[in-house]
Amino acid sequence: MLSTDIPPPLDVDPARRIFGLETEFGLHLDTGAARPVTPEEVAGHLFHSVVQWGRSSNVFLPNASRLYIDVGAHPEYATAECDTLTDLIAYDKAGERIVHGLVAGGEERLRAAGVEGTIHLYKNNTDSAGNSYGCHENYLVRRRADFKAFASALLPFLVTRQIVTGAGTITRTPSGAHFSFSPRADHMWEGLSSATTRSRPMINTRDEPHANAELYRRMHVIVGDSTMAEPTTLLKVGATDLILRLMEARVVLPELTLAREMQAIRDVAHDLTGAATVELADGRRLTAVEVQQQYIDLVRSHLGGVIAPTEEVDRILDLWQRGVDAVRSQDFSGVETELDWAIKHRLVMRYRDRLGCDLHDARLARLELAFHDVSPERGLFNRLQDQGLARRIVSEADIERAMTVAPQTTRARLRGEFVTRALESGRDFTVDWVHLKIAGSSGTTVLLKDPFRTEDARVDALLDALYPA
Ligand SMILES: Nc1ncnc2c1ncn2[C@@H]1O[C@H](COP(=O)(O)OP(=O)(O)OP(=O)(O)O)[C@@H](O)[C@H]1O
Ligand SMILES: [Mg+2]
User: What is the ipTM of this complex?
Assistant: First the structure.
């Protein structure tokens, strides 16, 4: 039986939103092995244990998140649907731990295949061959006829957001090396598109809401850098959410349409002084600092109106303002334990000074890579965080729980319970963002179109069906 009867949507608070983060990890094998080892072989060994229990290298986990190997042998982890930013951060961090948890088994399998080596997983955005991979942000928004114009209106914000939420990177050019705000900026080719790989847009407009398509769209932002520091992730998603809230309430945004988005995103990325200007469609020239300040001021002017004041909103606005101020004043000390680019900038510059080298030095490239290593022991970011040099938002207990238990306030709760119980029962099952199904049997499929629904009698029946009397 295919059960498509959907319960009526719950009375949904318009301020509630579903968030999800997808992260692709860089994979590298450090080995002196005599024979060549392809990334596919390494990925295969890394995912061996996953395939053992999940019968696939593309699975949904008991924490309701998705783990798979993407093209190019990049492991990808997509968080379950979260409806709070703190949950989102905890599930994002849980993903780093989960992929790191595969490393020891992968190395053992490699050893058995005659290859001694260390597997590194990097939560970064580019590899040494110049490939770019990303962190995709997903925001549930209400469906509207003018979605493309709506998405387009977000571009000036996204192009300039990197001065606060960029991951920071050493950029090497034939004429030297310099520190830039974002490694991803140079790999963006257009503003909007429904394709991802071929054209590399900032927003992917493919209409795949993973929800009731009459009510919702999924805003799929693919321009952002993967971020290590919890406050940076809070700001990246939190500030974007605030702008989306204003746009959904039909607040008129300041006229900031860019004349040439691709030129602008590169110019902003490569100018750490914040003095470079971008050209607007109306001929004005503004700095990224000025553009971001307009968005901050707009949000502030709607506090208490469209935007309910909360401690979290205060925290986002405070960090956003301090980030913009740091670029404006060129004194980065106010954000160097919170914003990824500033944390990395401080580390890189200290090593450069200590080594007496210039930014082109290969040792600094290795330092940058080690910053993104997800290993709690080897990862430099993780070590800085342990030393109190990177601030936290969530607790260790939150992250540990997020590794095995689904978010309880969204549809993910139903998926998490189904996956957990189906694995316990030993029954075959298939799951995606909107379906739960016990394989074989009578083929019962439950369609979960409402991402906010946490209770469902059809899922209870499905759970019962896992253990036939
Ligand atoms: N209705 C929804 N609105 C917003 N985000 C959602 C919704 N449903 C699921 N998500 C989130 O969207 C992300 C989907 O990740 P996934 O990697 O499967 O992306 P995709 O764009 O569908 O596919 P692919 O990466 O294969 O192109 C997850 O983080 C998930 O939590
Ligand atoms: Mg994905």
Answer: 0.98
> Where is the domain boundary, 401, 432, 452?
401
Whether 35 has a binding-site annotation, put simply, is no
Per residue in 157-208, pLDDT tens?
A: 999 999 999 999 999 988 899 999 999 888 877 888 887 556 678 999 999 9
Percent of the chain with pLDDT over 70: 95
- Which of 350, 378, 401 finishes a domain? 401
Closest CA to 317 of 158, 157, 135, 164: 164
Percent of the chain with pLDDT over 90: 85
Is 22 a known ligand-binding residue? yes
C-alpha distances out from residue 302 to 253, 290, 309, Å: 12, 19, 9
Q: Of the ligands numbered here, which is closest to the C-alpha atom of 237?
A: 1
Whether residue 415 sits in one domain with residue 372: no
Q: Which residues surround ligand 2, an ion (CB under 5 A)?
A: 22
pLDDT at residue 6 is higher than 70: no
Which positions are annotated as active-site residues? 70
C-alpha angle 49/54/57, rounded to 5°?
Answer: 70
CATH code (residue 184): 3.30.590
- How many CA atoms within 13 Å lie on the side-chain side of 11? 0
**Ligand 1 pocket check for 407: Cβ under 6 Å:** no
Instruction: Locate 182 and state its tokens.
Output: 């974002």
DSSP code of residue 303: B
Stretch 134-140: mean pLDDT? 94
- Whether the predicted pLDDT of 419 surpasses 60: yes
Ligand 1 centre and the CA of 95: distance in Å?
15
C-alpha to C-alpha distance for 288 and 367, rounded to whole angstroms: 28
My answer on whether 92 and 223 are in the same domain is: yes
CB of 224 closer than 6 angstroms to any ligand 1 atom: no
pLDDT, average across residues 315-341: 98
Do 386 and 414 fall within a single domain?
no
Which residue segment(s) compose the domain that 443 sits in?
2-12+410-466
What are the tokens at 208? Answer: 């795949």
**pTM, entire model:** 0.95
Q: Which long-range contacts (CB under 8 A, 24 or more apart) does 301-310 make?
A: 302/246, 302/249, 302/251, 306/245, 306/246, 306/249, 306/251, 307/242, 307/245, 307/246, 308/15
Residue 399, Cα to own-chain centre: how many angstroms? 16
Residue 368 has pLDDT above 50, yes or no: yes
Ligand nearest to the CA of 433: 1
Split into its structural domains, the chain has a count of 2
Is ligand 1 within 6 A of the CB of residue 382? Answer: no
